[in-house]
Every structure is written in structure tokens, then in C-alpha cells.
Specification:
Order of helices and strands: EEHEEEEHEHHHHHHEHEEHEHEHEHHHHH
CATH architecture of the largest domain: 3-Layer(aba) Sandwich
CATH class of the largest domain: Alpha Beta
CATH topology of the largest domain: Rossmann fold
Largest sheet: 7 strands, mixed
Shape: flat
Number of domains: 3
Low-confidence stretches: 248-253
Distance between the termini: 19 Å
């Protein structure tokens, strides 16, 4: 499908013991032979051969290297691939690429090797995303999930979902096309197929919170009125003095953002201006920005000062954020309690709460455990975890189509009505795996890859 041959450095561009330059395309071996002379023997498929690299114009050797040739279709891209391994000097690696381009290759675009593997049918788009996830994994758990998906585990689950729906739709279609044949399709079979498909989609959607916490981190906003200890809590959770702390209200006017790790998940903590009557135009803008960030956050830590009676600002914040994904935190338990904590908890029975002293670092471990258990829904996930918003949004559209079909089915609508609703999910599934291609989506996915992958 691709007429040209690409070349790129496939290892990090820095000094190291080993560096690799990769070529892919029909002229890979021809170009490599112009730069590489074996010390002994000849180039054989999938056999590592020691030799010398030289400038073909000057016949001047400049490096010792190993060459490995992977002929099409048994290679990463399903094209002829050559990998040249040498010392990891950026100067040497750049020279190999320069000479390769001079001999007819083109410098690869970001992710183009993997793009060719996808276009040539070696992998689907879910596996392509998993390859990049594995390269960029920030935890061993994410690496294991990405490795499984790179090997096709999630793709197989999606394919099973698609095959089940197509099988059911085919039987319904056959019965509609050939009514005289009395083809038997029990209602329970249709119901079971729909319920299993819906369960699969729901489980994968629920896994996204865990996936996001592993791959990019969940944004957690620390919200509260002025001077309740938000910056102290921010510093305590980070275990370093990142935010300025003073006894004066309105110290924090802009927001601070820092990442912390709890177990295998990453969280981005946001320390922001406290809610209250602003004393300065800058503080007013800070409060406005805080409200915007809180709306966008994946979760909220609503901090209350239990050493003081409940205020109007507290009630405002409880009303505004009490029904969201919020943990109620009662701070300053090292002082005598003056807030009616039990009354607040009875008004928000579904909200998780923790009592702490941010200053004295009391119950901070319990708070971290609560943050993890509240915002990372590990119990709701199955054997697969989705890591990308693209996947989640498509699965939500698939779920909507399936639920609409199920509703029509249970209401006793004609078969062609509920079948048409279910049928809407099939092209969405094909978009999920990349069988139906969107140039914008493909460009967005592969632009995030490094050049040599």
C-alpha cells in the first residue's frame, strides 16, 4: 500500500549504550546494503549479523553495528523491515538516517511504523493505542494492561460483542425475509444477547475511571471557603511545601497544580482560591477560576473547618458540590469541634467523609485511601480497562443504541424496529476497532507517537 521506504531513530535521542535505526518499505534492504558491509557471511532473514557502517560516497567506515532483516509479511509493519543496532551516540544515529535518506528513504512521521502496521492489517486501532500506552506507561499496572491490549485482549472482547450482535441481527433478518420458513428464534435468545452486550459495554465504560487514573491522572480539586486549610492540605498530601501558607484569608489567588501517586494511580491536585467575599480584583478572578476548575475536575475534596461553626459559605459549597463526586473533609480535628458534623453528614448520607488535621498530618493515610477508593472504581471493572476517552465516548454511543433496542424489544415493538436500533451499534463498534477509518481520528492517534515507533 505504501510505495516509499521510511527511516528513523527508534531509541530515545540521547547518549546511550545502544541505539537503533529502523527502515520499513520495499527498498529497506537495498538501502541498508549501501551502508552496511558484513564482517562475515551474508544477510539472512531474522538473523543478527555483525558488520561495518560506512559512507557509500566516500567508502569511509565510521561505526561497527548489527543488522537484522525482517522480510514482508513477517515484520512489525508487514513490509520489509531492517533494524541497525549500534552505539547510542546521537551523532552516529543521525548520520545513519542522513545517509539512508540520501540513498532514497524518507524520514518517518510520528507513529508511522505503527500506522503502517495498522493500515496493512497487522493490528487494529485499539492495539495501536495500546502500543503507545505501553511505551508511555507510568506504572507497572498500566504497562500490564497495555501489554494485554497490545496482544489483542480488548479487541477480542469487542469482536465477540460485535459477532454476538451480528448473529442475532442475522437471525432476525432471516426471519423477516423468509416468513414462510417458520425460522425459530426464541425471545429469550434475543433478550440474552442484548443483555450480555449491554453488560459488556457498561463494564468497559465503568473501567474508564481506573484507566484514566493510570494513564493520565484524575484531576482532584480542593474546594472550601477561605482560610480552612486548603493549602496546608495540599502541601501535606504532596509531602512538600509547594503552596504558601499564612493565617490570612485570601493568600491563594491563582491555582496550583501538582501530581501525586496513590497506589498505582496518578492524581493531579488543584489548590485554588477559597470561596468568600473577595478583597481584591485579583482574588475575585481567582475565585471565578476556582469555580471553573472545580466544574471540570474528576473529583472534589470539600474542606470544612470543624473548629468553627458552619457558615453561609460552607452551606453554599455543600449545596453546590454535595451531590457531585465529592469527599467531605472535616479539618482541624486537633482543635475542639464546634461544627455540627453529624447534622451535615445526615444531610448528605451518600457522601464519603473523613476527619483530619492537615497541619498535624492526622488521618492523612486514611484520606489517601479514601481518595483512591472513591475516585478509582476498581471493584466495578472487569478483566479489561479502557484508557482512552475516544473509546469511552464510542462505547457510550454503542450503549445508547443497545438500550434503545432493548426498550423497543421489551415494549413489544415489531422486530424491524428494535433490530434497526441495535443495528446502529455495528458501525460504532467498527469505528472503535478502526475497521471504519476516520482520517482525523487516525491523525490524532498517531501524532502522539514518537518518531521511530
Amino acid at each position: 500500500m505504501f510505495d516509499d521506504t521510511i527511516i528513523a531513530i527508534s531509541t530515545p535521542f540521547e547518549f546511550g549504550g545502544i541505539g537503533i535505526v529502523r527502515l520499513s518499505g520495499k527498498n529497506s534492504l537495498r538501502i541498508a546494503k549501501t551502508l552496511f558491509k558484513p564482517k562475515k557471511g551474508s544477510i539472512q532473514p531474522r538473523y543478527v549479523l555483525l558488520g561495518t557502517l560506512f559512507n557509500p560516497g566516500k567508502k569511509e567506515p565510521f561505526e561497527e553495528a548489527f543488522l537484522t532483516y525482517f522480510p514482508s509479511p513477517n515484520s512489525y509493519t508487514k513490509e520489509d523491515v531492517v533494524e541497525i543496532s549500534c552505539h547510542g551516540s546521537p551523532v552516529i544515529l543521525e548520520e545513519i538516517v542522513r545517509l539512508g535518506i540520501k540513498q532514497g528513504a524518507r524520514h518517518a512521521q510520528p507513529g508511522e511504523f505503527t500506522l503502517r502496521a495498522y493500515i496493512n492489517g497487522r493490528i487494529d486501532i485499539i492495539q495501536a493505542e495500546a502500543i503507545n500506552d505501553l511505551i508511555r506507561a507510568s506504572s507497572l499496572k498500566q504497562a500490564k494492561i497495555s501489554y494485554k491490549q497490545m496482544s489483542g485482549s480488548l479487541s477480542k472482547k469487542i469482536k465477540t460483542l460485535r459477532d454476538r450482535l451480528i448473529d442475532t441481527l442475522s437471525k432476525i433478518e432471516a426471519r423477516l425475509e423468509f416468513p414462510d420458513e417458520n425460522l425459530n428464534l426464541p425471545q429469550k435468545t434475543i433478550a440474552d444477547s442484548l443483555e450480555k452486550a449491554i453488560e459488556t459495554a457498561e463494564q468497559l465504560i465503568k473501567s474508564y475511571d481506573l484507566g484514566k487514573s493510570l494513564s493520565e491522572g484524575l484531576k482532584i480539586a480542593i474546594v472550601g471557603r477561605t482560610n480552612v486549610g486548603k493549602s496546608t492540605l495540599f502541601n501535606t498530601l504532596l509531602e512538600k511545601k509547594r503552596a504558601i501558607v499564612t493565617p490570612y484569608p485570601g493568600t491563594t489567588r491563582d491555582y496550583l497544580s501538582e501530581k501525586i501517586k496513590i497506589k498505582d494511580s496518578t492524581f493531579t491536585l488543584l489548590d485554588m482560591a477559597g470561596h468568600g467575599i473577595p478583597q481584591h480584583p485579583v482574588e475575585k478572578e481567582g475565585i471565578k477560576k476556582s469555580e471553573e476548575l472545580a466544574r471540570q475536575a474528576d473529583g472534589i475534596l470539600l474542606l470544612l473547618d470543624s473548629s468553627r461553626p458552619e457558615t453561609g459559605d460552607d452551606r453554599f459549597l455543600l449545596k453546590k458540590y454535595g451531590k457531585n463526586r465529592t469527599i467531605l473533609i472535616f479539618n482541624k480535628i486537633d482543635l475542639s469541634e464546634k461544627m455540627d458534623v453529624e447534622n451535615i453528614l445526615s444531610s448528605f448520607p451518600d457522601r464519603t467523609s473523613v476527619k483530619i488535621s492537615a497541619l498535624k498530618k492526622k488521618n492523612i493515610h486514611d484520606l489517601k485511601e479514601t481518595i483512591y477508593s472513591e475516585f478509582v472504581k476498581t471493584k466495578e471493572t472487569g478483566d479489561e480497562v479502557i484508557l482512552h476517552l475516544r473509546q469511552k465516548l464510542l462505547l457510550e454511543d454503542i450503549l445508547d443504541a443497545l438500550k434503545s433496542g432493548r426498550e423497543s424489544f421489551y415494549k413489544g415493538f415489531p422486530e424491524e424496529i428494535y433490530a434497526e436500533e441495535v443495528r446502529k451499534s455495528i458501525p460504532l463498534i467498527s469505528q472503535l476497532t478502526g475497521e471504519i477509518r476516520s482520517d482525523d481520528i487516525i491523525e490524532n492517534i498517531f501524532s502522539r507517537f514518537c518518531i521511530g515507533k
